[in-house]
Amino acid sequence: MPPGSPCPARDVQGAADFMQIRDHKDFALGSACLAIGAVFALTATSYNLGTASKMGPGYFPFVLGTLLAIAGAVIAVRSAAGGKALRRLERVDLKAGLLVLGSICLFAVLFDDIGLVLAIVGAVLLSSRAAPDYSLKQALAAGLVLCVLCVVIFAWALGLQMPIWPSF
Fold first, then answer.
1. Taking every annotated instance into account, which residue ranges of this chain make up the domain DUF1468 (predicted)?
2. What is the pLDDT of residue 4?
3. Is residue 42 predicted with pLDDT exceeding 90?
């Protein structure tokens, strides 16, 4: 090797460029999916997995958790790919996250008492407040469409026994 030429083994800059996270949003998403998938897959192993032809209660959660973890790992690794524009993780909107989480809790608490339709409308109205371009008309339209779909699919097509309207 001629004097003054860089040694490939000591070329740390190339390794640093390869491992630099370029897309922080994708890295955060991939890491979250990897963690959630791993927890689900590991928890599912406490149940009987069975076989592909005779699945046990842990088989489906194990497969889904594993697929989610693999997808998360791929997304996280690709966030360091060269050639991607640098994209930083923006500030997390805590209010929006709490509104969405609160709407899920509201649905769960109200479902048995006021029925499917009103619980969906309440959850959609609350969660839609998280959008920066909130519109009451759009929220009501989305709630109506979701109510119709849920009643048709769950109550009529699948025949699930659930309260559709409040029972006074």
1. 29-163
2. 55
3. yes
| Rounded Cα distance, 67 and 33, in Å | 10
Mean pLDDT of 105-117: 95
Chain length of the chain: 168
Q: Which two tokens stand for residue 152?
A: 């048709």
Instruction: Report the pLDDT value the prediction gives residue 12, as an integer from 0 to 100.
Output: 47
Token pair of 56 as six digits: 């046990």
89 Rama sector, left if φ>0, alpha if ψ -120 to 50, beta otherwise:
beta
pTM: 0.61
Q: Largest alpha-carbon pair distance within the chain?
A: 90
60 and 15 together in one domain: yes
* Per-residue pLDDT reduced to its tens digit, 62-76: 999 999 999 999 999
Domain of residue 56 covers: 10-78
- Examine residue 24 and state whether it is found in any structural domain, yes or no: yes
Phi then psi for 124, rounded to 5 degrees? -65, -40
Cα–Cα dist 90/87, whole Å: 9
Please, where are the H alpha helices in 6-93? Answer: 12-19, 24-44, 59-78
